[in-house]
Amino acid sequence: MPVSRLATAAAVASAAGLFSGTLLAQNNAQTVEELVVSVRKTDENIQEVPVQVTSLSSEVVRSEAIREIGDVARLTPSLQFDQGFWAQDTRVSIRGLFNRAGRPSAAVLIDGIDVSSEAFESSGGSGLLNQRLLDVERIEVARGPQSALYGRAAFAGGLNYITRRPDDELTTTADIRIAEEGRLDLRGTVSGPLIDDVLSAKIIGSHYELDGDYTNPNTGGDLGGGESDGIGVSFEWTPSDSFSAYWNNT
């Protein structure tokens, strides 16, 4: 074969390889799922949000067994927490900013509503939050000052739990977890319509017990354990396509 024909064949093969590579790249790009966040109180693509944010989807919440803020901190850069005097007093710290007393420097929110508490003798924390009653759609952690969005408690950032709305069809879920030291964690939900296409509701209940880490040598009782029960209800009212209202007491 003449040299010119060899060069032509090589050029055609090279062009075909480039063309197939372009198609492959296009196909791969089409399979990338868009990640939507609502850190600025509206649904946006995470790549278009001018805020450093970590979003944990419901699939990640289930696969990583996320039940507490400590579990969220394990998967989120620069997020730490300190346990207070009671189980619900979890004090969030973002980027190393941590208050010793008064209002915390990082806000804890449910659906964008600040549930952080304030105390003079401690750093407040999230005493109003019962994490075991949260049926989470996703968790968003915004790092950096967010006071314009979430209020004064979000000087270092905010941890926002976005809850799952009631379903349009009757659905039930159950979750049972058993671990060492007598840990038992039960949770179940019932969700469905009360008025088709207008009003739906969800009920969630939980039971938690833990024997404790230590045994009191004097009484023989367990130390560090506890037991709790909880129930929560949420409603979503959609009278028209242009208006909806959501109420959640968890």
Essential attributes:
250 residues; alpha+beta; Ferric Hydroxamate Uptake Protein, Chain A, domain 1; 2 domains; five-stranded antiparallel β-sheet; 16 strands; disordered N terminus
Description:
This protein is an alpha+beta fold and 250 residues long. The protein has two domains: 36-163, TonB-dependent receptor, plug domain (Ferric Hydroxamate Uptake Protein, Chain A, domain 1, Beta Complex), CATH 2.170.130.10; 171-248, no CATH class. The chain is 18% helix and 40% strand. The protein contains four helices and 16 strands. It has helices spanning 3-31, 58-63, 69-74, 147-150, and strands at residues 36-37, 44-45, 52-57, 79-83, 90-94, 106-110, 113-114, 136-143, 157-163, 171-179, 183-195, 199-210, 214-215, 222-223, 226-240, 243-248. It has a five-stranded mixed beta sheet with strand order 3-8-9-6-7. Strands 10-11-12-15-16 form a five-stranded antiparallel beta sheet, with no helix packed on it. The termini are far apart. Residues 1-26 have low confidence and may be disordered.
Topology:
Elements: H1 3-31, E1 36-37, E2 44-45, E3 52-57, H2 58-63, H3 69-74, E4 79-83, E5 90-94, E6 106-110, E7 113-114, E8 136-143, H4 147-150, E9 157-163, E10 171-179, E11 183-195, E12 199-210, E13 214-215, E14 222-223, E15 226-240, E16 243-248
Parallel strand pairs: 6-9
Antiparallel strand pairs: 1-2, 3-8, 4-5, 6-7, 8-9, 10-11, 11-12, 12-15, 13-14, 15-16
